[in-house]
Write a structure and sequence with these properties.
The complex is a heterodimer of chains A (472) and B (614).
Chain A lengths: L3 H13 L4 H25 L2 H5 L16 H24 L3 H23 L3 H19 L5 H32 L4 H10 L4 H18 L8 H7 L2 H27 L4 H23 L4 H21 L3 H32 L10 H4 L1 H15 L5 H15 L3 H25 L16 H19 L1 H12 L2
Chain B lengths: L4 H17 L6 H20 L5 E8 L4 E7 L1 H24 L6 H20 L3 H20 L5 H30 L13 H18 L7 H8 L2 H27 L7 H22 L4 H21 L3 H32 L10 H4 L1 H15 L5 H16 L1 H26 L15 H19 L2 H8 L5 H4 L11 H25 L7 H4 L4 H9 L5 H45 L4 H22 L3
Helix pairs in contact in B: 1-2, 1-4, 2-3, 2-4, 3-4, 3-9, 3-12, 3-17, 4-5, 4-9, 5-6, 6-7, 6-8, 7-9, 8-11, 9-11, 9-12, 10-11, 10-16, 11-12, 11-15, 11-16, 12-14, 12-15, 12-17, 14-16, 14-17, 15-16, 15-17, 16-20
The chains are: A mainly alpha (472), B mainly alpha (614).
């Protein structure tokens, strides 16, 4: 059953590209939309039992797949962000041919990410990451303008480096444990005496993941890639792709495969804190709306990493919950920036102002998004941040906890400054004729805002459904 | 029948509200309302004087607040006195305020104050008492505030001082109610143990501050200059002494078991003695008619507090007798001051002189009231002071000495005041000054006659009004009316008064002017330094409090600035410095970025390998 998550998108791509592709073009959008929407519904309403029974994959592939609660959260996030990106893409990518390519790549990337979050084998993990990454390179450079190509190139370089590191690490782990499956590696590492080889493998592996996830100081490719990519691709990249490739995998490996390690936790805390503070400070100085959101992304990733770094079940839960929240509110903010860019043809915040008057829906959902990112109750971002802060405090990392709280003030500062420069104040003369964004951009914005508000207000439900299952 | 008690509240309060509602331009009806309301009030008090009435109506039982009034000999006495003063001062004010624009508001607050005073005196429930007491604070503020331009500041000062002491009263009431388990005044009789003593002190602060005792006095001399004159005759002169001392004697006689020799008694006597001497020293050097009187209004409270504080029957009788005597001669003195102000246009003693011949009736009333306050036999002040001297001597010689010295200075300052205002050379601009109008003279004459009657025939007030307040057991059959029992003290008093007169003659001869008769005391070595500072309000507890609060607020302000600077300047600058550094580091050159990543990787690998265990 789980393998269908990968197989259906893959087969869809094949079917769409059969010789009759001109006929299929019309269906491409709806097909991808239905796939993403059904994934969201299935992940939201059915437990892990549905996925794990009747595993039919064995007869076709050697992939070993399993869905636990973490995978389920990720499947939901992947579905919702892909949905938002597809809707935005229909609106923003005008050229029919390019739009068809975009849809194909979306399906491919959907298959790749579903594979990443369901596999239980490091080598399969690597394969799915490559599928996703390659699709991303093409997506970033879809417009074929100079900036996009340069950004795509940077991403390829860094991604290649990360791939090499991960392959090397997988090889080393294979040497040490003789297995590539998660349970096998976990078993082997906890029973064997620690060797330098293992430590080297681990350090190479997590550095590869830091590059993929864009933690400081491994983030060099990220601001360019996010801001130069077409708007729908930005939503996808910032919202879910790098989070799945880098951060989900980091959580999976550090939290569930490796045995607890004090030194490793220290590294995570330090890298996380650097990302939080430096990312937020860098965001404060940006003029480009999407660049600011990119640096904010680095900062938020830092929160996830320090949550993971505190090593306690509560911390890991906080990290996962923040990962989920981040994919929701960051996609929302990138959707809003796409709406603004589509109407005003600029992302420079100095040239904008007072848009809330003309684009009330975009302005309001943007407020919800940034308040959630800054951790203001009762939005969902508040709960995940407070859990991380509490977990850090309980684990005895008081200084990190304090930094995390104070960085929240900088977060609020740059988001408020963004909101003020773009949406508040008096509308500029040349923007007077601006219209509200089209339905295809408003729908994902409203949907994501509703999830942010809902998950915040219904936090007790989230708590009862997920926290308890993580603490089992 | 008992419902008639409500009239004491309803009549003045309704009349006051009516007076407020009447349009500003219509003058006649306001005066009619004031006179008829105060007259009706006086009539009611006189008719029911001998009755014993009680009114009870549950109000908020949950907090022990009942609308419970009690009219018996003590409260009847105060109500009657209040009503009499109210009526006379209303009569006087209809003329003296006839040209003032604020007359309507003054009369409205005046009537409401009478209603509230009646309520406070009648209440038999501590919380109800507090309700009326706080109401009096509001009208006090309003009555001062309608005066001249700087009156608002003085009104605020009075509001703050009296407001703080009213808070003490509130604490005392809550504590007393808690200790006694009831809030019905007539049902409380507590011993003065540790908590009881604390409750007593809080209640006492509320009471003596209303009476104007030190150290809660400092708004009174300011109000003398800023507030409308009838206000001074009415509130600090008469009514506040009556209710303040009424409450003080209620708490000392009924609510608590005050014994001679207890620390509370000694404390009261010290407060009284200090008030007597310090206030009279200040009065001595004043150069303004009204301000001089206002310091005496403070100083005389000292005698009452001292008398009641002795906790022996003769002292309590003396204190209460002094209370009614003081209300009479003090309001009479203020009224003469008002007459002088109205006719001569000023109360500055430097600009007055020789008015005795122009205003003979006013001068005569002044003389009667002045000799009464100085304690010259056979006027009323003499008899009450002798009772207080007797009780003070019985407790401790030092208190007696302070009281007698106070008397000396009182006499000296009134010799100076009378000499400066009514004797000496008439000024040219006062050639055409006439005697005050009859309606102003009548109240003065009536009160002055009262001073004489209460002196010569002191049996009347003492037997009818004051002795019933103490239970027969406490009186032990003593008689306090008639000529003082202790002849030696009378002789000393007369010697002291003669000394004051000689001192005045000496001063006049030395400086050649009645006004400067006490300059040899004012400018005596050491004393003049203290006087200078006192005149600059250096010792005013209110000003000291203000200074302390200013210092605190200055410190708080600086802290606030510092915190502000940290947030607004330091944090922002540091943040933007960091932001700029980070922005500069991001050159867009991917080789640099790659180097960062590799360095990061190396550091992590080295750290993890160094840590050595998994």
């Amino acid at each position: 059953m789980t393998s269908l998550l990968i197989l259906i998108p893959l087969f869809s791509v094949m079917v769409l590209n059969l010789p009759s592709r001109t006929m299929m073009r019309r269906f491409a959008f709806w097909l991808s939309l239905i796939l993403a929407a059904s994934q969201v519904c299935l992940a939201a309403f059915f437990g892990t039992d549905l996925w794990n029974n009747a595993n039919i994959s064995g007869s076709f592939f050697q992939f070993n797949l399993a869905v636990d609660n973490l995978s389920r959260v990720m499947l939901f996030s992947i579905g919702i962000v892909v949905l938002a990106a597809i809707l935005a893409g229909r609106e923003l990518i005008k050229d029919e041919n390019r739009q068809f390519n975009f849809t194909n790549l979306m399906l491919l990337i959907l298959a790749g990410m579903n594979g990443v979050v369901t596999t239980v084998d490091v080598f399969s993990l690597y394969v799915f990451m490559e599928i996703t990454a390659v699709a991303s390179f093409v997506l970033i450079s879809l417009q074929k303008d100079r900036d996009a190509l340069e950004a795509s190139f940077k991403y390829i370089i860094f991604s290649a480096l990360a791939s090499v590191m991960m392959l090397a690490a997988i090889a080393l782990l294979l040497m040490v444990s003789g297995e590539t499956g998660f349970p096998g590696i976990s078993h082997a590492l906890s029973n064997l005496p620690t060797s330098r080889l293992t430590l080297l493998a681990v350090s190479i592996f997590i550095c590869g993941l830091f590059i993929k996830g864009g933690a400081m100081p491994f983030h060099g490719w990220l601001p360019d890639a996010y801001s130069a990519a077409p708007a729908p691709v930005s939503i996808l990249l910032a919202g879910i792709v790098t989070k799945t490739l880098g951060i989900y995998t980091l959580i999976r490996i550090v939290g569930f495969v490796l045995s607890p390690n004090y030194a490793l936790n220290n590294i995570l805390l330090l890298v996380g804190t650097i990302s939080i503070v430096a990312g937020a400070l860098a965001a404060l100085g940006q003029k480009d709306l999407k660049r600011m959101l990119s640096y904010s992304s680095i900062s938020q990733v830092g929160y996830i990493i320090i949550g993971l770094g505190c090593g306690t079940p509560l911390g890991i839960f906080g990290a996962i919950f923040h990962l989920f929240n981040h994919s929701i509110f960051k996609s929302l903010l990138f959707t809003n920036s796409a709406a603004v860019e589509s109407r005003t043809n600029t992302r420079n915040m100095e040239e904008l102002g007072g848009l809330a008057e003309r684009m009330p829906c975009t302005g309001t959902t943007s407020i919800i998004g940034f308040l959630s990112a800054a951790g203001i109750p009762p939005l969902s971002g508040f709960w995940s941040k407070i859990i991380i802060v509490v977990a850090l405090w309980q684990a005895g990392f008081h200084a990190y906890s304090a930094i995390a709280v104070m960085a929240g003030a900088i977060t609020l500062a740059y988001f408020l400054s963004m909101q003020r420069r773009v949406f508040f104040g008096k509308i500029k003369e040349e923007l007077k004729s601006t219209k509200e964004a089209n339905f295809n951009l408003l729908l994902p914005a409203l949907l994501l805002a509703a999830i942010t508000v809902g998950a915040g207000i219904l936090f007790p439900f989230v708590h009862d459904t997920f926290i308890t299952s993580f603490f089992k | 029948m008992d419902n008639v008690l409500l009239l004491f509240l309803i009549v003045p309060l309704i009349a006051g509200i009516l007076a407020l509602l009447i349009p500003k331009k219509v003058r006649g009806p306001v005066e009619v309302i004031v006179l008829s309301a105060t007259g009706l009030n006086l009539l009611l008090a006189a008719v029911f004087f001998k009755s014993n009435l009680a009114y009870f109506c549950p109000w908020v039982p949950a907090i022990g607040l009942d609308f419970s009034l009690r009219f018996y000999h003590f409260s009847a006495f105060i109500i009657l006195a209040t009503a009499a003063f109210g009526f006379l001062i209303a009569l006087y004010s209809t003329v003296s305020l006839s040209d003032k624009t604020y007359a309507k508001h003054f009369f409205a607050y005046f009537l409401i104050t009478i209603g509230l005073v009646n309520g406070a005196v009648l209440s038999d429930n501590l919380l109800l008492l507090l309700f009326f007491w706080e109401g009096m604070l509001v009208t006090l503020f309003l009555m001062i505030a309608v005066g001249n331009k700087s009156a608002f500041k003085t009104a605020a000062k009075a509001l703050i001082i009296v407001g703080i002491t009213d808070l003490c009263l509130m604490v005392g009431i809550v504590l007393t109610g808690h200790l006694a388990g009831t809030r019905t005044i007539s049902g409380i009789n507590l011993p003065l143990d540790a908590l009881g003593g604390l409750a007593f002190v809080f209640l006492m602060i509320g009471a003596i501050s209303k009476a104007g005792s030190m150290p809660f006095h400092s708004w009174i001399p300011d109000a003398a200059l800023d507030a409308p004159l009838p206000f001074m005759a009415f509130l600090p002169g008469a009514l506040e002494k009556l209710v303040g001392i009424y409450l003080l004697s209620r708490i000392s006689l009924d609510l608590f078991q005050l014994h001679p020799g207890s620390w509370v008694s000694t404390m009261l006597m010290i407060v009284g003695a200090v008030t007597i001497i310090l206030a009279v020293m200040m009065a001595l050097v004043q150069k303004d008619y009204k301000r001089l009187l206002s310091y005496h209004a403070i100083s005389q409270v000292g005698y009452m507090v001292l008398g009641i504080g002795t906790a022996i029957p003769i002292g309590i009788i003396g204190g209460l007798f002094h209370m009614i005597n003081n209300a009479m001669y003090k309001s009479c003195l203020f009224l003469t001051g008002g007459a002088v102000e109205k006719q001569a246009g000023t109360t500055d003693l430097e600009k007055l002189g020789g008015l005795g011949l122009k205003m003979p009736i006013t001068f005569a009333c002044f003389i009667v009231a002045a000799v009464s306050i100085s304690g010259v036999p056979p006027f009323n002040g003499f008899f009450s002071k002798e009772l207080i001297y007797d009780s003070a001597l019985e407790r401790n010689l030092i208190f007696y000495l302070v009281a007698v010295i106070g008397s000396f200075f009182t006499a000296a300052s009134f010799l100076k005041l009378g000499h400066a205002a009514f004797l000496g050379k008439l000024r040219d601009e006062h050639r055409n000054v006439k005697e005050a109008p009859p309606l102003m003279l009548v109240p003065m004459i009536i009160i002055a006659l009262g001073c004489i009657v209460f002196g010569i025939y002191n049996k009347l007030p003492i037997h009818a009004l004051i002795q019933p307040i103490l239970s027969p057991e406490r009186l032990e059959g003593h008689q306090f009316a008639g000529w003082p029992a202790n002849t030696a003290l009378v002789v000393i008093t007369i010697i002291v008064l003669a000394g004051a007169f000689l001192n005045h003659r000496f001063g006049v001869k030395k400086k050649g002017s009645g006004l400067k008769a006490v300059d040899h005391i004012h400018y005596a070595p050491v004393l003049h330094i203290i006087y200078d500072k006192a005149e600059k309000r250096f010792f005013d507890p209110y000003n000291i409090g203000l200074k302390i609060i200013n210092i605190i607020s200055e410190i708080a302000w600086r802290c606030d600035r510092a915190i502000d600077w940290v947030y607004d300047t330091l944090v922002v600058k540091v943040t933007y410095a960091c932001t700029n550094q980070i922005r500069k580091a991001h050159t867009g050159n991917y080789a640099t970025y790659l180097v960062w990543s590799l360095v990061g990787f190396l550091l992590i690998a080295v750290f993890l390998l160094q840590s050595g265990k998994m």
